[in-house]
Specification:
UDP N-Acetylglucosamine Acyltransferase, domain 1; elongated; seven-stranded mixed sheet; six-stranded parallel sheet; Spore Coat Polysaccharide Biosynthesis Protein SpsA, Chain A; alpha/beta; about 20% strand
């Protein structure tokens, strides 16, 4: 595995999309907080994403958020950078930008319009901020929470090592999180080459699934499954920005850009149309000079030192002068320069090297025959990466669009996006399980990015209160006598009264819970109030909402309670 780049070296940049979170109602209402600051294990979820990026050596981060959340998010990011400096890690370069509705080409939009840009017109955002991106880049959401053994460097290594990598994605096996979990999608991939071939929402499918023959020809063993989910973590080649520039009709990354790139991996017409855009050629005059028979690199004094072409070489399939490989044996002296370092010429000769030294002219029938030999007998890696033949288009140019995929198995750790109430709840449960096993905080990723200082006020827990080992109570929170807290997360600066029972709950910061309250499987948002003797089960309480006890003493079940 590649190690993380040295600090200061910019190999990849990151774009983090921090939208409103419409599927998290009432947790992300304006009276509460934006999705990026919703706590998981008493830490804002965006801190997990930033720590994940930092572990991979990515320090140049662009964060896009609706204008209404800019101030709150900016305050948290300042605290995050300050904690990095205190820990001696060095501050990330974080560029926070407030997204305006004008990104979609209109004016005077509301906050809801700003969020629509983040939700559905993400490709437009890449166009607008393309000047901020100078390298290959990663696009990811603020709500993706990876387990500790899923390193971003694994995805980046896959992108680095894949020949002609245009896109590398991360998918993960879905877990059962209840009926309100994420929608199923149909994913097609080639497990042998780790190539992503198809992504489609189940609700958009007809009774029949159209499969192109060009895809079956290039990838004869395609796996179709609905067990995987898209993490929305995408590693893009920088030239994809040029593709977006010449294709203004592409508005969404997930719904339009990704499917187009997948099709270009096996459709010749798309690959050829986009070849120049996605793989701009170097200066032709310079390449012509490098490939001239009268020019040799300084370390090669004679044509006899030019290595003979090999079937397993990554040199382009070009003809070399007969004297360069027929009259002289190949040499393996490590001090001599390998011509594979010279970029391929943009002018592709009508011939190539095949086993046995034969060099037939490239006709269509011979091309089909060579492809057939490759399909039946050539070992993996003979032409390009992992058994993927470098097929040629009608004009003799090679296809250069490769879309890789990394799949995380459920057995290797729970992973999800906190983009629904069900998955948000489950991520907090998983955190508590890890907390109970290790008695340490924030084991979903690295140590917490904003750890409490040694002088931070400890929670004030009455000696007669019972706090289970699989629960966590935040700093400066007061817990009254004979209160029971089981399998629950309680935030900071909360007041929990006497004789309270909390089971399987998430209670955010600055919440007041009265005496004799019973809460089971509930989420209570910031600054909410639960009055004395209230009884709630399977409810979500929005920010600043006040819950009164039922006059008849009945239990309130399955309600979403929020300010109108």
């Amino acid at each position: 595995m590649f190690s993380a780049p040295r600090k200061g070296r910019k190999e990849f940049q990151a774009v983090v999309l921090a939208g409103h979170g419409a599927s998290l109602y009432p947790l992300s209402e304006k009276e509460n907080m934006c999705k990026a600051l919703l706590p998981i294990g008493n830490e804002p979820m965006i801190s997990y994403v930033l720590t994940w990026l930092e572990q991979a050596g990515i320090i140049d981060v662009l964060i896009l958020t609706p204008a209404s959340y800019y101030s709150a998010l900016s305050h948290h990011l300042q605290s995050f950078r300050q904690s990095q400096i205190q820990n001696g890690d060095g501050a990330m370069k974080i560029n926070l930008q407030a997204v305006k509705g004008s990104a979609a080409g209109s004016e005077g939009e509301s906050d809801d319009d700003d969020d629509e840009v983040l939700k559905g017109k993400t490709a437009d955002l890449l166009r607008e901020y393309k000047d901020s991106l100078s390298t290959d880049f990663i696009v990811l959401p603020c709500d993706f929470i990876p387990p500790p053994n899923l390193l971003l460097s694994t995805v980046l290594d896959s992108h680095r090592t894949r020949q002609n990598a245009t896109l590398t994605t991360l998918f993960y096996e879905r877990a059962d999180v209840g009926k309100e979990g994420p929608d199923r999608i149909l994913v097609g991939l080639d497990k042998h080459t780790n190539t992503l071939l198809h992504v489609q929402d189940i609700e958009d499918m007809d009774d029949d699934i159209p499969i192109r023959m060009s895809m079956m020809w290039k990838y004869p063993n395609v796996t179709l499954t609905t067990k995987l989910l898209d993490s929305h973590v995408y590693v893009f080649k920088h030239s994809v920005l040029e593709l977006l520039k010449v294709s203004p009709q592409i508005e969404s990354i997930r719904d339009e850009l990704v499917p187009w790139l997948l099709k270009a991996g096996f459709q010749t017409c798309l690959a050829l149309d986009w070849k120049t855009t996605l793989n701009p050629s170097p200066d032709p005059q310079t390449l012509a000079y490098l490939h001239s028979t009268s020019h040799l690199p300084p370390s090669i004094s004679h044509a006899s030192t030019i290595p003979a072409p090999s079937l397993h070489s990554h040199l382009p399939l070009t003809l070399l002068p007969s004297s360069s490989h027929e009259s002289h044996p190949s040499t393996t002296n490590s001090s001599e320069t390998n011509l594979s370092s010279i970029p391929p010429s943009p002018i592709h000769p009508r011939g190539f090297v095949v086993p046995g030294g034969a060099r037939p002219n490239l006709s269509r029938s011979e091309t089909v025959l060579i492809r057939g030999v490759g399909r039946m007998g050539l070992e993996d890696g003979a032409y390009g990466e992992e058994g993927d033949l470098e097929e040629e288009g009608e004009d003799g140019t090679e296809r250069r669009v490769a879309c890789g995929v990394v799949v995380h198995r459920l057995e290797d750790g729970f992973v999800a996006r906190a983009n629904t109430v069900a998955t948000y709840f489950e991520l907090n449960r998983q955190f508590l399980k890890q907390h109970a096993l290790s008695q340490a905080s924030l084991l979903l990723t690295a140590p917490p990015p904003t750890p409490p200082s040694p002088t931070a006020p400890a929670p004030l827990i009455d000696p007669r209160a019972q706090i289970s080992a699989d629960s966590l109570v935040g700093a400066s929170t007061r817990v009254g006598e004979r209160t029971s807290v089981k399998k629950s997360l309680v935030g900071r600066h909360c007041v929990i009264g006497k004789n309270v029972k909390l089971v399987g709950c998430v209670v955010m910061d600055f919440v007041r819970v009265g005496d004799g309250v019973k809460l089971e499987n509930c989420i209570v948002c910031q600054r909410a109030t639960i009055e004395d003797r209230a009884d709630l089960k399977d409810c979500e309480v929005g920010g600043q909402f006040e819950v009164l006890a039922d006059p008849g003493g009945k239990t309130i079940k399955g309600e979403k309670l929020a300010l109108v």
